[in-house]
Design a protein that fits this description.
The protein is α/β, with parallel strands linked by helices. It folds into 2 domains: about 1-235 and about 430-455, Aldehyde Dehydrogenase, Chain A, domain 1; about 240-425, 3-Layer(aba) Sandwich (Aldehyde Dehydrogenase, Chain A, domain 2). The protein contains 15 helices and 19 strands. The chain has a 7-stranded mixed β-sheet with strand order 13-14-15-12-11-16-17, with helices on both faces. The chain has a 6-stranded mixed β-sheet with strand order 8-7-6-9-10-18, with helices on both faces. The protein is globular. The structure holds nicotinamide-adenine-dinucleotide. Nicotinamide-adenine-dinucleotide binds next to helix 8 and helix 9.
């Protein structure tokens, strides 16, 4: 991304080639209050429709996205570097989940009826007004889809700011969604942190933010004085526990795919692996063997399994984590070779401890960090020793269910990743989240509950 303040355009840069992908006009921050006011005005008629009618109106979204499947995938790869197979996977995941998500939203927004003999109550789930939706670059379609669409389905007008790294994917997604809602109900704002802060400060009723923990803290504080509603989906430092009776091939397959997918730039990437001593050496060898088979390259090349980092800033952040771990005694089992451009060599580190920066702060890069522990209790203590709490997983048999229940994350997988069955909320615990989305429970976070009561008849 480069911003030309003289002409106020934002140019999206391909991290593999350094070439421009395209440009969008930056929205002047001073225009944002008027845009929010226009959204509020246009949103009145949308808010007055029933949830059933609104969801019927936007149900065709999956089909409309399908018509742009290849273009969307090309943009994801070009703007942030993910391999084409992963880009198509992201687009197909969004399209494939549409129908079920709309069913869940319709169920979640259906009023509840309660009776206690004396009183009969109807609990309605009404729009808040204007929702500000701010998204990151790592899933340039998946994150806007997970937040813009429920905000609209709940009857809100939306002011949406995609990441400055992936404005073209955000713009195309918004244009497709705009076909399904009345004019002015969904606005797009382009820019960086400056525009993000201006949206949060404007007269919005709900802020739906997906991004880093640091920005999330600022947003929560900024919303405090106006008591604005807030949903924050933030970063993670997900642990994986490998127990003595784990299937080590399956555990190593998962460790590699979930540490290196999207070049490690996933909120629920495996960032810390705790393996019990008696199986540690075998497990480490299996991980290294698999990492050596990753194919580094431009995501647009079909054979690439590991693309570049999104930009040089992210690359330097990952390299600093690796350097600091080495200074503190970590062993490099593979990787850590200098690379040109925005690439970071896929790296496996061992001989780690939980005081190291790389085991505490989000790395968000292609690094597998493996720490040996004495036993199950030590693994649990180390895994839970974090202020984050997004995802977690445990590989094992006899104790796996018990270990899963004692992990402090919001989503825990047993012998698999942390994502729940379709319809489950996507929820971060501790400092990884504040509110959540997904499923019939999640849609209600985008709506104001109102209770209307009458004498029971
Ligand atoms: P970021 O916090 O730097 O930026 C996210 C978005 O917020 C961008 O659009 C940015 O312009 C805007 N922004 C930045 N500072 C802001 C502020 N103070 N006020 C308002 N807006 C602001 O994050 P990023 O680098 O784009 O994305 C990576 C982060 O996102 C990682 O921490 C990752 O774990 C997290 N993430 C979380 C989830 C989840 O569901 N929990 C999903 C994807 C990514």
């Amino acid at each position: 991304m480069t911003t030309d303040t003289a002409t106020t355009t934002l140019t999206s840069i391909n991290p593999a080639t350094g070439d421009p992908v395209g440009s969008v006009p930056v929205t002047p921050a001073t225009d944002i209050p008027a845009i929010v006011a226009a959204a509020r005005e246009a949103g009145r008629s949308w808010a007055a429709t029933s949830p059933t009618d609104r969801i019927a109106t936007i149900r065709g979204l999956g089909e409309a996205l399908s018509a742009h499947r290849e273009r969307l995938a090309e943009l994801l790869t070009a703007e942030m570097g993910k391999p084409m197979a992963e880009a198509l996977g992201e687009v197909d995941w969004v399209i494939g989940a549409c129908d079920k998500k709309f069913d869940d939203m319709a169920r979640g927004l259906t009023p509840d009826e309660l009776q206690d003999g004396a009183t009969s109550s109807t609990i309605h789930f009404d729009p808040y007004g204007v929702a500000a939706v701010i998204t990151p670059w790592n899933f340039p379609l998946g994150m806007p889809n997970a937040t813009v669409v429920p905000a609209l389905a709940a009857g809100n007008a939306v002011v949406f700011k995609p990441s400055e790294e992936t404005p073209l994917a955000g713009q195309l997604f918004a244009e497709i969604v705009q076909q399904f809602v009345p004019e002015g109900v969904l606005h797009v704002i382009h820019g960086d942190e400056e525009q993000g802060k201006a949206i949060v400060a404007a007269d919005v009723n709900l802020v739906v933010f997906t991004g880093s923990r640091e920005a999330g803290k600022h947003i929560l504080a900024a919303c405090g004085s106006g008591l604005k509603r807030v949903i924050l989906e933030l970063g993670g430092k997900d642990p994986m526990i490998v127990l003595s009776d784990a299937d080590l091939d399956k555990a190593a397959d998962f460790a590699v795919s979930n540490s290196f997918r999207n070049c490690g730039q996933v909120c629920v990437s495996t960032e810390r692996i705790y393996v019990v001593d008696d199986v540690a050496e075998t497990f480490e060898n299996k991980v290294v063997e698999r990492v050596l088979n990753l194919k580094i390259g431009d995501g647009a090349d079909d054979t690439t399994t590991l693309g570049p980092m999104v930009n040089n800033r992210q690359k330097q952040h990952v390299l600093e984590h690796i350097e600091s771990a080495k200074r503190e005694g970590a062993t490099v089992r593979c990787g850590d070779e200098p690379m040109d451009g925005n690439w970071v060599a896929p790296t496996v580190l061992t001989d780690l401890n939980n005081d190291m920066e790389i085991m505490r702060d989000e790395t968000f890069g292609p690094v597998a960090c493996i720490m040996r522990v004495d036993d199950t209790e030590a693994a649990l203590a180390a895994a839970n020793d974090t202020p984050f709490g997004l995802g977690a997983c445990v590989f094992g048999d006899a104790q796996a269910e018990d270990v899963a229940r004692r992990m402090t994350a919001g989503m825990i997988g047993i012998n698999r990743g942390c994502g729940g069955a379709s319809g489950s909320p996507f929820v971060g615990a501790q400092q990884s989240g504040y509110g959540f989305h997904g499923g019939t429970m999640g849609i209600r976070q985008f709506a104001q509950a109102r209770v209307v009561s009458r004498p029971a008849t």
